Amino acid sequence: MEKFLKFGLVGIFNTLITIISYIILVKFGMNYLIANIISYLIGVANSYYWNKNWVFQSNNKNLSVFFKFLTVNLIVLAFNTFSLFILVDKLLYNEFIAQIFAIGIGMMINFFLNKIWTFNQSENSY
What's the CA gap between 96 and 60, in Å, rounded? Predict the structure, then answer.
């Protein structure tokens, strides 16, 4: 439970970073899907550092952890972008409201995939 709470706190900060970046990019005229990808990747960089070092406390220096983390986040990014497209283009939700909804679902997927695969202590302790 402690890891989930820490993950949630990191997630809140990543979400703020992502949403603020997204709003700025969209307000400057960038397509909302491209803005979503760029802002998500900005959040991923911050997320990797804090999840590796604080939430899951992984001292593994193996690059496989980074690539697993990147893979998980690319899966979540694909889900997030697809959800955003459906909510905005098909269901006609506001792009900012849709972004918040898509991030919430993506956060749950992200936590479980990182917990069971990326930062799995038994798998990464060789």
Answer: 37
User: In this structure, what DSSP letter does residue 119 have?
Assistant: T
Q: Is residue 39 within 8 Å of residue 22, measured between CB atoms?
A: yes
**How far is residue 69's CA from residue 112's CA, in Å, rounded to a whole number?**
12
DSSP state of 115: I
Spatial neighbors of 57 by CB under 8 A, at least 6 apart, are none
CA distance 106 to 39: 14
Rounded Cα–Cα distance for residues 7 and 27 (Å):
29
Question: What confidence tens digit (pLDDT) does each residue in 6-24 have?
Answer: 988 998 898 899 999 999 9
